[in-house]
Design brief:
The protein is about 35% helix and about 15% strand. By secondary structure, the chain is an alpha/beta fold. It folds into two domains: about 250 residues, Aldolase class I (TIM Barrel), CATH 3.20.20.70; about 70 residues, no CATH class. The chain has an eight-stranded parallel β-sheet. The protein has a two-stranded antiparallel ribbon with strand order 1-2. A two-stranded antiparallel sheet has the order 11-12.
Length: about 375
């Protein structure tokens, strides 16, 4: 998850349900495709579309979601993702007031007539943002999908559902996903240890986390963390997910409204170039390494368990505008996933989504099908 620091291990989300295991029911997805010969008389033209519970829930063509990202999830990117057949997301708290969010939603409406959503992160702070105002802006803007993150969104669920809004909550553990299901979330985004931003404190990668989620959950879920291409999508589906959420990959697109230096840093990075910071504060964040991150890590080592947020505030607070807008790459720590090692270009959003779906089609129809005996 790529935005505000938050504590998913907050008490409200630690209400683990009694352990229960069951074999996962088959999560049906349908590949709308045809044999190699497009002129075959009994088949319609190939569409490279996948029908899953996520595409049905959100009314989208492809089971791909662009997650909320601070100072990245603006109208330009959200509209481009939605126009490509996936689900674009505006990051609500990047807009400093509900009025500004209302304007951003209206601006997005001028760019797309497809479904898009808004991310709301519920921060564990003494002085909370004007959440009622933000939700009012979402309702009045006609948005029908909200991606929630951070603290338990239960308080806001009745209001959102009253207005026909579907809620997908970001979770980094099966116990938190089960809690989200119990409070009425329509879907969850399961974030593995690979993800950029806040991976939680359990350190469970997606190859374990996703099938565990499939064993336990009844509501649909998408895979987040390490998602970049058609291979990611097919693997996520095989492990029980109904789609995937991409953050870092969408940052490296032409429509992403961020400085080109950020995009080029992602392309240049390998899977070894991220670091975990704020672990002593139990607010772990995966970030791309830079000079500011090295200073932050040195301070963490120096102070050990005596570390306080104030000791590292210079490297983590208020740095996103300087990095994302101005390209000041050493201004502080910024979220980036290990998936940077799989990103080698900066295409348009449409080219990226089309490529992912073509890759997924080829993997399912050709490589995997050829292994059947």
């Amino acid at each position: 998850m790529l935005h505000w620091p938050w504590r998913e291990d907050a008490p409200a989300m630690q209400l683990a349900l009694a352990p229960r295991r069951r074999w996962p029911e088959p999560h049906a997805f349908m590949l709308v495709a045809t044999p190699t010969d497009p002129n075959h008389p009994i088949h319609p033209p190939r569409s490279n579309a996948l029908k899953t519970r996520i595409t049905e829930l959100f009314g989208i063509q492809h089971p791909i979601i662009q997650g909320g990202m601070h100072f990245v999830g603006l109208a330009e990117l959200a509209a481009a993702v939605s126009n490509a057949g996936a689900l674009g997301i505006i990051t609500g708290l990047t807009q400093k007031t509900p009025e500004l969010l209302a304007k951003e939603i209206a601006r997005c409406r001028t760019m797309t007539d497809k479904p898009f959503g808004v991310n709301l992160t519920f921060l564990p702070t003494v002085t909370s943002p004007d959440y009622p105002g933000y939700i009012q802006a979402i309702v009045e803007g006609g948005v029908k999908v909200v991606e929630t993150a951070g603290n338990n969104p239960q308080k806001w669920m009745p209001l959102l559902h009253e207005h026909g809004i579907k809620v997908i909550h970001k979770c980094t553990s099966v116990r938190h996903a089960l809690k989200a299901e119990a409070i009425g979330c329509d879907a969850v985004s399961v974030d593995g240890f690979e993800c950029g931003g806040h991976p939680g404190e359990d350190d469970v990668p997606n190859f374990i986390l996703l099938p565990r989620a499939a064993e336990e959950l009844k509501i649909p879920f998408v895979a987040s963390g390490g998602m970049a291409d058609g291979r990611s999508l097919v693997a996520a589906l095989a492990l029980g997910a109904e789609g995937m959420n991409m953050g870092t990959r969408f940052m490296a697109t032409q429509e992403a409204p961020i400085h080109d230096k950020v995009k080029q840093a992602i392309v240049a990075a390998s899977e070894l170039d991220t670091r975990l910071v704020m672990r002593p504060l139990r607010n772990t964040e995966r970030v791309l390494n830079n000079a500011a991150v090295e200073r932050l890590i040195a301070k963490e080592k120096e102070l050990g368990d005596k570390l306080k947020f104030e000791d590292i505030i210079e490297q983590v607070a208020g740095v996103y505008p300087r990095i994302m807008q101005n390209g000041d790459m050493d201004a502080g720590a910024w979220s980036c996933g290990m998936v940077a090692g799989l990103i080698r270009d900066v295409p348009t959003v449409k080219a990226l989504v089309d490529r992912i779906m073509a890759e997924a089609d080829a993997l399912i129809e050709k490589r995997l099908a050829s292994m059947l005996r």
